[in-house]
Inverse folding.
């Protein structure tokens, strides 16, 4: 989720509540003000009616029209509350409308000069109030949603505008790769936090680039320096084995030393390869046909392990194409093939299945189910093969991680299976 969407999502609920409360309070206040104005009108009308009733002996004690009406009746002085006004809402039948309509009523009491008490009820129609209340309500609802949408849109626009330097910095970081020089990102902003972040990241990238170059140089130097003495030792052993004075025991010892040296050379190459893969020193990619690559490698491995008389079962459903470095693709398939050939027994079975986005290789073996927790660890040797360095599956895992290839191990029907799922 983007930062702008995350922020807007978090703002939505508080804004919804705030504007809802504000709208409700506003509506209540407006309706209260309308009632207050209506009450003031009724009180003014009451004063006129009482004044007229006290001064005019021919005053009509009841009156009614479509909008207002009043009625006066004499009451017991004991029940009359002269200092209080009672306001309430009710309904009355309107002949012209032929239905009950809402009205606002004022009830009060007054006393004439003779000491007689009267009850006065004044009514006024609230037809306009109801219409006004409905209009106000829907206006507030529309305004509520329009205001909420406007706030979110403006927030999104302001957020994107304000965070443009940050997005530029993120895009610059995505373009940075080990071994490739990238121009320093110049952040055009006056925000102190962004300036500090840019400075810290540029310095961090510079330090990491220096560390990477130093590590790369160290690995290359170490590998080169190891290759030379190992090659010399190998040549010396070969010359020594050709010496006619060597006894059979000495030749056996020389052979053992030679095998150890070969293992060290293979281990050195594997470690160097792992280091280069993890440092992403294979940026070149191409469309690799895994079917053709498999056939080429199978010919070589079948010739090398011909004495084992292994049964190769190849099932090609579709052509598997993958965009990756061709050298690493060769190493990936070769290591899986070697693992299946080395950890197999004579006249065993190797089953290979290829589909559009999946490569599966299975092999019989004397080994039981492997420990998945340590399967791809370096120098992990669970088999009995003496010429294994324990780095083959670690290289496979490293290449798979580099190209986001999903690798899965399974043990079923006494066969070890490795399945590669490619993202086509």
């Amino acid at each position: 989720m983007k930062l702008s969407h995350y922020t807007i999502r978090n703002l939505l609920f508080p804004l919804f509540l705030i504007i809802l409360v504000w709208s409700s309070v506003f509506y209540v206040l407006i309706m209260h003000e309308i009632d207050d104005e209506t009450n003031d009108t009724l009180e003014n009308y009451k004063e006129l009616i009482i004044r007229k009733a006290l001064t005019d002996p021919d005053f009509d004690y009841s009156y009614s029209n479509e909008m207002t009406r009043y009625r006066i009746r004499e009451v017991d002085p004991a029940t009359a509350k002269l200092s209080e006004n009672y306001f309430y809402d009710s309904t009355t039948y309107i002949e012209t409308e032929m239905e009950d309509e809402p009205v606002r009523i004022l009830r009060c009491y007054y006393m004439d000069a003779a000491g007689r008490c009267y009850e006065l009820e004044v009514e006024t129609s609230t037809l306009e109030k109801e219409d006004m209340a409905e209009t106000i309500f829907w206006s507030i609802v529309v305004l509520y949603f329009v205001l909420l949408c406007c706030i979110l849109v403006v927030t999104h626009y302001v957020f994107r505008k304000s965070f443009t330097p940050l997005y530029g910095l993120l895009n610059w970081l995505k373009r940075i790769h080990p071994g490739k020089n990238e121009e320093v990102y110049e952040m055009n902003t006056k925000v102190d936090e962004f300036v500090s972040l840019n400075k810290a990241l540029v310095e961090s990238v510079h330090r990491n680039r220096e560390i990477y170059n130093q590590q790369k140089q160290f690995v290359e130097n170490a590998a080169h320096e190891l290759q030379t003495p190992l090659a010399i030792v190998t040549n010396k052993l070969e010359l020594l084995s050709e010496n006619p004075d060597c006894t059979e025991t000495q030749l056996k010892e020389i052979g053992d030393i030679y095998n150890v040296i070969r293992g060290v050379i293979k281990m050195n190459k594997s470690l160097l390869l792992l280091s280069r893969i993890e440092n992403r020193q294979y940026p070149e990619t191409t469309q690799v046909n895994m079917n053709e690559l498999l056939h080429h490698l199978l010919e070589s491995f079948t010739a090398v392990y011909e004495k084992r008389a292994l049964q190769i079962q190849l099932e090609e459903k579709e052509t598997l194409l993958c965009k990756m470095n061709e050298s690493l693709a060769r190493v990936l398939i070769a290591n899986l093939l070697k693992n299946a050939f080395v950890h197999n027994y004579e006249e065993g079975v190797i089953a290979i299945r290829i589909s559009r986005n999946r490569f599966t290789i299975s092999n019989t073996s004397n080994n039981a189910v492997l420990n998945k927790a340590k399967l791809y660890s370096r120098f992990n040797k669970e088999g009995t093969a003496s010429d294994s360095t324990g780095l083959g599956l670690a290289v496979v895992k490293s290449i798979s991680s580099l190209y986001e290839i999903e690798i899965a191990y399974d043990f079923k029907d006494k066969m070890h299976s490795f399945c590669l799922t490619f993202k086509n």
Notes: The radius of gyration is 46 Å.
